[in-house]
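So, is this right?
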Amino acid sequence: LTSAGYYIAQGTVVLDGGASTPGNYLQTNIINGELWVGYDQVNAGAMLITNSSLSISSWLAIDRGNGTIGSSSKLTLYDSVVTAANFSMGYANNIVGNSSFPVLRLLGNSSLTVGARTFIGESAGADATVVVAGNSRWTQTSEWFALGNSGKGTLTLSNNAVVTFPGDYNLGDLTGGDGTLNLYDNATNRGATLYVGKRAGSVGVVNQYGGYLGRSSGGGDWRIAGVDAADATAIGTYNLYGGVIEPAGNLQIGAYGNGTWNQSGGTCVCSAWPAVGRFPGSVGTMTVSGGVFSQTGTGQRLIVAEEGTGTLTVSGSGLINCAGGLSIGHAASGNGTVNLDGGRIVTPSVYANTPDSTSTLNLNGGVLQANANSAGFITGLDAANVLAGGAIIDSSTNTVTIPASHNSAVANR
């Protein structure tokens, strides 16, 4: 197949390389223009590429201007390679009342390479689904990736899938955008700067059951809910059930909007500054009931309420390791609460960085353990309360002192 643009209005187009094997295709296809899978306002289109290669010099689009009927155009790759300059799913093309459900599936040992921008659920009214499974790979070589741009997008990675993006990785990008990432098995996902619920009125969700989520290269702070002061209505949620997440930089839970971290398993390794309630007006909620959350930089801290409102609750078998310390109420506008209802917090100190903040520590059954000598293990807090579950302070092999201002509330074990 060689074409100057290819457009599938309805029915199914099959590119079948027969006995070809990945890397040794007997069929090579070239489109010197755009490929649209589904663009008719009455029908849906479909394309199956198996044991073949396809090169597209411009846009690859699924459900482009398919109207208001709720069509579901589909592109499926099986043991195939596709390259495109840009990629879009669910573009309205100026049609009022856009409604579409585009689907992309990369199966077997397939590969999709996109040169620049990607929009999954590009326009309002689109609900796009992407599945990357088997040993398939998706690589973007420049610019940004929008999962739920102005519409809805869901990306599910499983088995040994590998997906890599070099720029902003936006889950719920613009107002109305709704993006969900599901990560399973041994899948690997890398992006430079992760935003979960980026702009005002957007929603982002990560459900990680396994696999690995980490940084590709460069990039900035990873932010759950909001990118600047105009994004107070951004909502972001990270649910960690298993696997490993490694931001390799700052992690902000509730950057400017409403951010939530729910961890019942798995491991998070943050080498810089994790902050719950980062900027003024933000709300961050962090719950660790299982798994391990580690702040590994000795020159940084785990901050609960830097300039916003932050709450950390540890329960069950949850474990938090702080190499640098636990700061509750880091700046004057910070309003922080830590609830130790179970599990364990291991840290060299628990303190309020400034007396102008609001800081509360509630000890209710978990273990607060020192990992270094400290003459002020708990210091500067507005309140350190022992609740019905009791308080266990474990100095381990260290020598720690709790200043007199907090001695009435807690006692060494």
Summary: The first strand starts at residue 2 and ends at 3. Residues 13-394 form one domain. The chain has one domain: 13-394.
